[in-house]
Amino acid sequence: VLLDGSELAEVVFEYAQELSGRMHLDVELLHVCRPQDAEQVPMRRAYMEHMAAVLCEKAEEIRRKYASKEALEQCVHARGNVVVGNPAQEILKYVDENDIDLILMSTRGSTGVGEWDIGSIANKVIHASKVPVWLVPVELREEIIDDTMPRKDLVIPLSGSKMSEAAVSHAAAIVRQRGKETPSELVLLHVYDPGIVVTRAALEDADKRRAEMKAYLEGVAKPLRDEGMVVRTEVLTGEPAEAVITYLKINPAQLLAMATRGHRSLSRAIFGSVTESVIHLVKKTPLLLVSAED
Length: 294
Prior knowledge:
9 helices; two-stranded parallel sheet; single chain; globular; 18% strand; alpha/beta
């Protein structure tokens, strides 16, 4: 969990408390201090250690409230850490050296639309990370933090390619980890973009394509349903990124999980075009980005 000391970045801290408590996850809080601010390391380390203690206490309260008898034996552990160097490089180095499974970070931090915004550190981390990156928007819905939403949907947009399916296994793992105490529904979503349809033949072809994509989604859903998960499939029509965002506005979800085209390099950053558009448009829903290379 990446923190920079700002109020905006601490939105992810509140979210991490609930997430670690409900899913029984140990947490590493990480702050990267730039070399020119190295003299502040002792103060910042004390801050991070304090935040780790606060998170651990809160997460334990949540765990005891919702955990099954078996999970009550599992304690949530949290640790605060400070490193010095280039933020993106140090984050990725820390992940590699400490066997981290997931990076949790806010979409903006102390510099507003600058340092922590998509396009800078977060952008570099997303593309070079070997593990999924969970982005927490600064305008996160309070119901998501409190886990009080009436429906607990995890939405996964799929294009029909194997690459887009990279996020499915991760979303399913989240459902398993949350357990029966907090059941979630997976929503497999495809957006068909017909362009400009003006002829009867084009309309008939559009209907055929929608039917094909519905069958494809049902095929992806079958093994998940066989496992006992609740899975819904939706085929929408329109411009893909806008349709996904509109769907989330009408049907607020706990999480949006999408695949990216990662290149494992800080110098190259290429999302799929739809994924990139959604990242910049989504405002109130957490976003789990999984490299299609995983």
